[in-house]
Amino acid sequence: MGERRPGWVPLAWTGGQFADFQPYVPAIDDTGAVVFQATLRAGGSGVFLARDGRAETLLEAAPTETFVSHPDCNGCGEVCVYLTRDDGSSALVFWRSGRRITLADSRHGVFTAIGPLGPVMDAAGDVAFRATLANGSEAVCMFSGGVVQVLAHTGADFSAFHGLPVIADRAGVVFRADRSDGVQGVYRVFEGRLLPVLERAAGDGVLALFPALNARGDVACGWTDASGDAHVLRASDGREPVHVETGVLRFESLRGCLLGDDGKLCFTGTPRAGRLGVYRVTDRDLSCLLEEGAVMAGAQVQTFALNPVSVNAQGRITARIVLDDGRQMIAVCG
Q1: What DSSP letter does each residue of 6-64 carry, written as one string?
Q2: Distance CA 130, CA 92 (A)
Q3: DSSP assignment string, 245-293
Q4: What are the chain's domains?
Q5: Is residue 293 within 8 Å of residue 242, measured between CB atoms?
Q6: Which of 60, 153, 181, 290 is in Cβ range 3.0-4.6 Å of 137 for a Cys bridge?
Q7: How far apart are CA 60 and CA 47, in angstroms?
Q8: What is the pTM of this model?
Q9: What is the pLDDT tens value at each position of the chain, 334 positions in all?
Q10: Exposed/middle/buried for residue 184 (C-beta within 10 Å: 0-12, 13-18, 19+)
Q11: Which residue, 82, 72, 132, is CA-closest to 103?
Q12: Do residues 232 and 224 lie in contact, with contact meaning Cβ atoms separated by under 8 Å?
């Protein structure tokens, strides 16, 4: 833990037009642009782009709509997000060049609900998301080439899905699921095949809910073993997962991992007798990027949130940060 903690650059604050950024995380694309969801002091909600020191409105919810997920973005200026309507229906919508397109909608018969959590998009504009099918099954889906595909669903093989399905350029989709026989696993759909990346039998600890995937096909996920020690597991080139060295620190829990296309790995975890933090794995050790209780902008960090959409190809990350004086910020790690 010898490296100096890097600085965070605020991009947007509550106050002024923004009332609340919670509970959703911001996303960052490969150009460094950050998109985030916010509720407005004047009422309603929107999706905003933070760039060059200002926040630009991309999407505004209609009076009968509410945005209910993090947005995701890519370097091509495209954004996707979930919304709900006053009639109880939900949809996955896509924004490009000022035009909003509905990709999946619970009003059209195939789905009864879109979500939970949020969508993930790659550079080609393909979107991975979760949904509930008309027969009541939970599903992991992908929108690609104008068509929605169901990649996996609960039933004979899977009993539950967790976290976000993650999509990466030319690397397929990875998701966290429980099998019907009690096995926990991380699975990858690639070139039409569904393959296990890592699995743990019932009673063999607990896999974290948020795996990560990059364009090289690397997969990372947290795992807390039966003795209560938490580890980061990483699989590359289809090989067996290996433990990632975390130096002298031992962790009691891990929430999730983030992977850049350059191979940079970050994870969110709580060290034994410590506080929740974001850590970057380096060749020498771990670098703590953010920690609950840290001093920032004249106050202490009360909580923060980020997930796999909060990292770009270069390994740069963004987060929603709540301070103990009530202020909230969207920030990027400089």
Answers
A1: PPEEEEEESBTTEEE-TTPPPEE-TTS-EEEEEEETTSSEEEEEEETTEEEEEEE--TT
A2: 10
A3: P-TT--EEEEEEEEE-TT--EEEEEEETTS--EEEEE-SSSEEEEEETT
A4: 17-260 (2.130.10.150)
A5: no
A6: 153
A7: 7
A8: 0.93
A9: 444 456 899 999 999 899 999 999 999 999 999 999 999 999 999 999 998 778 899 999 999 999 999 999 998 889 999 999 999 999 999 998 889 999 999 998 899 999 999 999 999 999 999 999 999 999 999 999 999 999 999 998 999 999 999 999 989 999 999 999 999 999 999 999 999 999 999 889 999 999 999 999 999 999 999 999 999 999 987 788 888 887 778 999 999 999 999 889 999 999 998 999 999 997 767 889 999 999 999 999 999 999 999 999 999 999 999 999 999 999 999 6
A10: buried
A11: 82
A12: no
Give the DSSP per-residue string, 131-147. EEETTS-EEEEEEETTE
Rounded-to-integer distance, Cα 7 and Cα 5, Å: 7
Length of the chain: 334
CB 260 within 8 A of CB 315: yes
Using the Cα atoms of residue 96, residue 328, residue 54 and residue 66 in order, give the sign of their dihedral.
positive
Structure tokens at 106: 């619970």
> How far is residue 252's CA from residue 94's CA, in Å, rounded to a whole number?
38
Q: Name 188's bridge partners.
A: 174, 195
Here the tokens at position 133 are 């099918």
